[in-house]
Amino acid sequence: MRTHPPCPRLGQHHRATERRDLCSRRSLQALTQAASKLWVPNTDFDVAANWSQNRTPCAGGAVEFPADKMVSVLVREGHAVSDMLLPLDGELVLASGAGFGVSDVGSHLDCGRGEPAVFRDSDRFSWHDPHLWRSGDEAPGLFFVDAERVPCRHDDVFFPPSASFRVGLGPGASPVRVRSISALGRTFTRDEDLAAFLASRAGRLRFHGPGALSVGPEDCADPSGCVCGNAEAQPWICAALLQPLGGRCPQAACHSALRPQGQCCDLCGAVVLLTHGPAFDLERYRARILDTFLGLPQYQGLQVAVSKVPRSSRLREADTEIQVVLVETGPETGGAGRLARALLADVAENGEALGVLEATMRESGAHVWGSSAAGLAGGVAAALLLALLVLLVAPPLLRRAGRLRWRRHEEAAPAGAPLGFHNPVFDVKASEELPLPRPLSLVPKAAVDSTSHSYFVNPLFAGAEAEA
Questions:
Q1: What does the DSSP assignment read for 61-93?
Q2: Where is the signal peptide (predicted)?
Q3: SS3 category, 381
Q4: In whole angstroms, what is the distance from residue 265 CA to residue 238 CA?
């Protein structure tokens, strides 16, 4: 079974505090299968990414906070500044040993320009942005579809107590609901307590926007897992995820790309869908894939996401199914399809013991080795093949047509005929020796056939299907 990283000892780097936050609730999560999501960004004074020049204010420099932005800023160190413009509503939280002193303008070489260091907009961090969360269940080879990178309704959410932060709750179209929230040393499991905190000054400095945030003790007690519950919020999740890309998905590097449930953009790989019975255990099956399959050399470079999702087709009794997404991250291709077929074979052999009733798979098509250089090289190669084809086919066609005639270069041209030039390609003797061109196929059969496949395995009839 996959195990969590050990809890850190006291005195380690502040990231160890994040791990302790996750460790503190691990025993409870083991009983309820709740996952942990940790908020990553902060509004600390001493973090270079929080400043307009991507560096903390230098000694003797001017500091400016946007006047109309509420913000709570944690200061860990001492700083000497020449001038500081504070916001109309905010707070500076001084850690032990931190403080501010006055220094002459330009006492540091980097401050010679006199441009103030401006604190970046603290409202830029959105709850729905998958980039801003880290899962407590991270493991090599494991990833989560985009909608599940944001806290799900059964998740425990942690905001690091050792850092300041500010979170935008979105437009309010889809209320945010999770199992619990830990912030500022408190854990909120009741809506009444959380609402009182959000209405306080400390809460308003850290959470903003029209979106609603609530908690509820909705434990996921089903061993087969629970649906994330972020389907309604997925448009906002995808908008936040793709905002740095101009709102558009990058082109998938394969034909017939797949888009699993919960994913914002197409991807290359394979998707296996499992119909499960009451004996199915999601965590055990995820660990089986990670430990039994992904450790094999032929599956290096693959990543897997395993979760319960609503069944896309309502033609069958079950309203949920298990989605296994396999993605290729390395230069090798075809590994996702091979692993998907291996999982189907595993279901055919061990489906009853795993609690899997049936399995199907979909696989993306051949990879597209596309780039400007590759496209140019492909175009040149195609042009050369076309030219070669013309040179091979044209002489016999011209010879058969009988409408055009050429002479050997030693024959005399009729009087008054224009003189031409010698082209060895159209030499009569050479042309007569050339065999008739055979039909050429420039596209391999595998490339023209469909490369998106679907398979079905029912363990009740596994023997017959395996023989087939």
A1: EEEE--TT--EEEEE-SEEEEEEEE--SSEEEE
A2: none
A3: helix
A4: 9
Rounded Cα distance, 168 and 172, in Å: 10
The whole-model pTM stands at: 0.73
Contacts 24+ apart (CB under 8 A), 54-59: 55/110, 55/117, 56/117, 57/81, 57/117, 58/108, 58/110, 58/111, 58/117, 59/103, 59/107, 59/108, 59/111
DSSP conformation letters of 428-465:
HHHHHHSPPPPP---S-HHHHS----EEEE-GGGHHHH
- Cα–Cα distance for residue pair 434/423, rounded to 1 Å: 16
Q: What is the pLDDT of residues 396-439, one digit of tens each?
A: 443 443 332 333 333 444 444 444 444 444 444 443 443 433 43
Q: Which two tokens stand for residue 200?
A: 């306080």
Instruction: Write down the residue that tokens 């082109």 correspond to.
Output: 251
Question: Do 61 and 116 meet the contact criterion of CB atoms below 8 Å apart?
Answer: yes
Q: Which two tokens stand for residue 426?
A: 């159209």
- For the stretch 337-390, pLDDT in tens is 999 999 999 999 999 999 999 999 999 998 887 543 334 334 434 444 555 554
Q: How far apart (Å, rounded) are the C-alpha atoms in residues 338 and 436?
A: 43
